[in-house]
Every structure is written in C-alpha cells, then in structure tokens.
C-alpha cells in the first residue's frame, strides 16, 4: 500500500474503524456523484463512476458491477491499490505522475488490462496521460519499454523509445525480450542499429584531406595521419558507440593532433573533425538514410530506396 496514494478517515464507535480511501477517488473528488465503490486487494477504497469507465470498454468490470445492488455496495477487485490507481487514472485520462509509479507498476497495470476488457492501445497513445507518463521512463529503460511497446503493438511508444536504444548494444537483447517483442519489432530494432552503424561508417570513413607537400611534410607523412584516422575510427566503431556524444568524438581525434608537428596536417585534421562533428550531430538530431540503403523499406515503409529520408530519431521507425 502506497501511503502517498491515500487519505485516511476514521469513525469512532465502540471500536475505532479506520478506512483507507484513495486521495484521487474519494467521495466528492469529481463533479459527478460516484455510483460504485471498488476495494483493492490491500483494502483501499476507490469511489468511481461506471459510465466513465465503460466509455473505454463497455464490458469493463462486468463481473464485478453485476454483484453490486446499490452505489454503496463495495466491489472487491483483485488488484493492489498501486495497480488499480494506475488503471483508474488511465480510464479517467488523469495523470498519476504525482504518485511516481515505477515502470514495474505501470507494466503490471497494462498487463492486467485484458482481464477487464481494456485495450492497451486505446489507453497508450499520444495525447493520453498514461502515454506521457511512460515516456518519462524511456531514458532510463529504453530497451525494456521498447520491448513492452512492441509486445502490445504500441507503435508510437516503440518509435519514441527506439532512438534511446542506440546507446545500448543489441547484445543486451535477451531471448525473453526477443520473444516478447516479436519478429517484426525485433527486426526493426536490429535494422535500426545496423542502419546507424552504416551511417557512422559513411560519415567517418574518409580521412582528413591532404595539403601541398612541403619539405617538412611529404605524402608519406600525410599518409600516417590517414592511417591514424582510420585506426581511431575503427576503434570507435568496434566499441559499438553508435550513439557517440560529440565531445567524445572531438576528444578522440584531438589525441591525434598532439602527435602532429605539421601545422598543415593539424589544420586539415581540425577541419575534418569539425565536418564529422557537424554531420554526426545532424544524425543525432535527424537521421538521413542514403539512397542505396537496403533498410529503407523496413525502417520507413512509406518511402522507397530512391528517397532520402530526413527525420527525427523518434521517427526512425515510423
């Protein structure tokens, strides 16, 4: 039982009776008078309105409301107060962010929706409070939320969480996750990561340009810089850093400059690093898929491989 969820009232008689009541669904908390009282498995009372809940699903709570003969009859519901609180806030399209429910609680609430004939897709989409609340968990739990969204075919949530998975290695996808998200979304996730890796290689593959040969720096000297660039790029790619921060890129290649004596080489290196940083920053803000990409049809089905697609990372699966 979450104490932040509750207001507690008491009545004095021969013995004191203490009743726990939801602070959001207490008598008088809404304009209309309640016509049902739900009691959670941990004995918290929720005063609710059946017409609001049935607007989301005509069959919701049928097995429970059928047993009630008046608005003051208490209907027992086999959910904890924390889970029932999320379910009711969702049906009323109210935010329960003030209770700071963990994603475990949110996921459990959604898992229980089918039991009450509620469609998760009707409750979790842009514009709904539950969708907004789930987005707050994405930065810390991107892969878990992507898996959850894929399982319930919550496409918009999968799109929003997909870009955050780029900070992780696909090797962190367990067999259980893969099975839960299903073949379509697993394939999309894999191709998203492959596509970002392809973009990384395209941006970083060309070494710094050359400058006119001088006595102090000939072609062979400049080739050493090109080889060093290739090694540094290979290291960054090998580490799987497909969501590299710009400052890490600058720091990695600045080490190359420290070993250079030629001012011309230093200048071409700085120019190339700046060019790469700008291009990579553009990828992190908006993804460009090359004309030749074989991933276009899956990542962005509405486009053909002859298109150049520029979109935000959050639309990369759209």
Strand content: 5-15%
CATH architecture of the domain at 3-113: 2-Layer Sandwich
Strand-pairing-aware structural class: alpha/beta
What CATH calls the topology of the domain at 3-113 is: Potassium Channel Kv1.1, Chain A
N-to-C order of helices and strands: EEEEHHEHHHHHHHHHHEHE
What's the alpha carbon Rg, rounded to whole Å? 28 Å
How would you explain this protein's 3D organization?
There is one protein chain. With 318 residues, the chain is of the alpha/beta class. Among the domains are: 3-113, Potassium Channel Kv1.1, Chain A; 205-285. The chain contains 13 helices and seven strands. Helix 7 runs antiparallel to helix 8 (155-162) and helix 11 (246-258) packs antiparallel against helix 12 (263-285). The longest helix is centred in the middle third of the chain and has 30 residues, at 175-204.
